[in-house]
Amino acid sequence: xxxxxxxxxxxxxxxxxxxxxxxxxxxxxxxxxxxxxxxxxxxxxxxxxxxxxxxxxxxxxxxxxxxxxxxxxxxxxxxxxxxxxxxxxxxxxxxxxxxxxxxxxxxxxxxxxxxxxxxxxxxxxxxxxxxxxxxxxxxxxxxxxxxxxxxxxxxxxxxxxxxxxxx
Length: 167
Fold this sequence. Notes:
The protein is mainly β. The chain has one domain. It contains no helices and 17 strands.
């Protein structure tokens, strides 16, 4: 019920946070970690991990491997880290980092920021077709807006993206 620290081992671990501001740490396997009801810190470590936020403002770290990160319902910070990661802020106004590898950033509910988009390798994922995405360069950043008005701002990107950037 309080602030817990839960750690995985060498296999494929399934770890759930609950009440309290928890610290969840995966192990060396392909782990699945779920943040709980408070502001949690969740670390995938090694392996192809799935890392989920939940309520409050969570901080998620993928670690080594090709990870999938899913923010929760509020304003989260997601770090893909090493590997080819899929980074989805989900609801809220989130801050997203790929941190190396060929990363895919998802346009989702809210107004999210990608702090390290690499035009040489990273991709964008949207439920909308490419033609339905509005691209606006403003203040030295590229703002992508989907049909629902949700935005993904690419920090420091000053040109629009061709269809090949979208998956």
